[in-house]
Amino acid sequence: MITIIKYTFKEMLKKRAFLLASLLSLLYLSIYAFGLSRIFERPSDSIYDIIFQSEILSAGLFFANLIVAFLVVLTSVNAISGEIESGTIYSILSKPIKRYELVLGKFIGLSIMIVLYSSIMFLSVVGLNIWFGSKISFGWDNILKGLFFFDLGPIVFLALIIASSSIFSTINTGIIAIMAYGIALVGGVLEQIGTAIQQSQVSAFGLKSGESLINAGIITSLILPTDVIYRKMTAELLTQSSGISFMMTQGLFGGMSQPSIYMFIYIFFYVVFLLYYGVKRFSQRDL
């Protein structure tokens, strides 16, 4: 399995998709840094400016998260199916390598690279906000917890893609990945809107509509829980040691609705099941 991990790691570095995603990331961070330089031109310590700064940070992390997801799809959608379609799977399996080692080795190798890439994106966005004078007080516990959840989302997404690539063709895997991520994203937005409606308590009809939207968000998070992980990340990052939390002020980029501990138990078994099912189906697949 170690051989597969090393092979996958090196293979990913050579892919044009990785180079493309890296260039897009540099472009994004440059534009984001330019925007921050203009936003922070006028220093202020008012609570309204600090809330606005937290919104800018959340928006930056939101789009950084999308770029990481873009990288996950481009680099892993053909992880197993591509080897089968190109015929290289025969030379790989002719060596003393079992099929489950191939699937798990691909997953671990891609996970290492994605975690490194994701961590750089997260620390860059947070670091740029600190560099340009953000008044949000970040403790090391805020940053480390936020980093953990920012990295966790792409790993869960990767598990779905690896399992799909072990069963379906590259095209079908890409469709499944993009559709699942889109559904999770839309569901997360609907859940935030539903929570905002419930908190406003405008009317009994509004409360009922809010509950329906929240339920829709919960259902979509069961299909792919990447969005709820992102909401948890914003909560951990923007909850200050003093107890002050900015997560309720972020709108669609924030975390007005937070996942429970049961959701993270579900996420653990979700990843384990996907990898197990992917290995099982690949082991039975007629090559």
UniProtKB/TrEMBL annotation:
One MF annotation (Gene Ontology) recorded for this entry:
ABC-type transporter activity
* Protein known as: ABC-2 family transporter
Give the top-rank taxon of the lineage listed in the UniProt record for this protein: Bacteria
Q: Does the keyword Membrane apply?
A: yes
> Looking at the keywords, is Membrane present?
yes
Keyword terms of this UniProt record: Membrane, Transmembrane, Transmembrane helix
Protein's organism: Caldanaerobacter subterraneus
Q: Name one GO cellular component term.
A: plasma membrane
Any stretches that span the bilayer, and where are they? 57-81, 102-131, 143-163, 175-193, 261-279
